[in-house]
Design a protein that fits this description.
The chain is α/β, with parallel strands linked by helices. Helices cover 44% and strands 17% of the residues. The strands form two sheets. Strands 9-8-7-10-11-14-13-12 form an eight-stranded mixed β-sheet, with helices on both faces. A seven-stranded parallel β-sheet has the order 3-2-1-4-5-6-15, sandwiched between helices. Helix 1 crosses helix 4, helix 2 runs parallel beside helix 3 and helix 8 packs across helix 9. The radius of gyration is 22 Å and the shape is globular. The model has no long low-confidence stretch (mean pLDDT 97). It binds nicotinamide-adenine-dinucleotide. Nicotinamide-adenine-dinucleotide binds next to helix 7, helix 8 and helix 9.
Amino acid sequence: MKKSIVKDLSLADKGKLKIEWAENFMPILEAIKRRFEMERPFKGVKVGMALHLEAKTAALVKTFVSGGAQVAITSCNPETTQDDVAAALTEYANVYAWRGETEDEYYENIERVLDYEPNIVIDDGADLIVHLHKRKEELMNNVYGGCEETTTGVTRLRNMEREGKLMFPVIAVNEAKMKYMFDNRYGTGESTLFGLLNATNLTLAGKTVAVAGYGWCGRGIALRARGMGSKVIVCEVDPVKAVEAHMDGFRVMKLIEAVKEADIVITSTGITKVVRGEHFRAAKDKCIFANAGHFNVEIWIPDLEKIAVDKKKTRYFGLPYNQYLVEEYTLNDKRKIFILGKGRLVNLVCGQGHATEVMDLSFSLQAKSAEYILKKRGALKPGVYTVPEEIDREVARLKLKTLKISIDELTEEQLRYREGYLQGT
Ligand SMILES: NC(=O)c1ccc[n+]([C@@H]2O[C@H](COP(=O)([O-])OP(=O)(O)OC[C@H]3O[C@@H](n4cnc5c(N)ncnc54)[C@H](O)[C@@H]3O)[C@@H](O)[C@H]2O)c1
């Protein structure tokens, strides 16, 4: 047993079953794990991780451990740890995480992972990497490189790179096609709706759902909400994406107009204060607000706190949440506004994260990208790198193999045609 700090070790048996369940449906990661067991590429390597700590993440931790790594892990969000999974994971790694961490506890746990002196850092949202650069500079020399999971994290790291402040290479796992086309789009689409349905016990059929942000996540949320029978409105700031949403058959309008008719508003922009005072004031009675973007800044709750005359928590759930999933605010004209999961990632706080098969893709990319960092140790300059094309395509090929799908290949003639020799003849 490693030295860990979790909520309750007696939950380990329940967590173990959840991890086993996930592993049943992660065949690509399983294949990588089996290879790692034989090759032990991470022997003697310390991996520090900050990822939403739930069952699929545990499968990734076990993959690194099988490859010889020593792992320390915390969550990348104070509200997304599943305490039973965290307890079970202590058998394999140093775990510092529990659901409902205060802001201070969250950063203390990040520091515990950094104090483990990792050689490779695996991040989601870049808090671990930013904290390392700002507060633990003395540990930087241990680090060969890192991997970043999400859009917001990559944006932060690219800003650091531009300012010359990023001190090691980081692979932007989010930018692999096998990541954003499936995880951000279908993963977020499905799991956001699951979180919403779970937290509210309401139907989506016939409801008007406004989706702010029509990027990879927003497209998935809009698509799946329409599939569940909702009337979907898209709100965007990018004219191209707005035209795309229109062509995809959605109504497009300003958020201030959309909130007047929306039953549910979902944000997924990566930008702050998308929903703010003016939107709360214009919202329909009993409007439900949920956020699927990385940070809890998209729905600006301080504005709501200012205008609300009453507030209470409701919809208590036991494991894996052990918390109230909805906050009910009453305004002075008696209208109610509901906020799901304190405005944090609704699919993780009120749901169970992305579907397992989706995370099989994302975490296979993580495992292979971390191995790439290891192989390229010393050869990559500090900066943000896209996932090498061969890794992306290999994960796609493995996925097809697990699905028992065969696809055509270009003939020699077609290859030559593509290369330009025969064009026009
Ligand atoms: N919930 C999850 O599990 C999950 C999964 C992947 C990514 N994310 C996070 O979701 C967020 C979005 O990710 P993405 O990959 O879709 O990014 P993206 O860049 O593809 O899309 C974001 C979209 O939001 C739009 N936008 C920005 N500000 C806006 C505003 N004020 N109003 C309306 N639209 C606005 C942008 O124009 C863009 O089209 C990020 O924070 C990302 O880290 C969450």
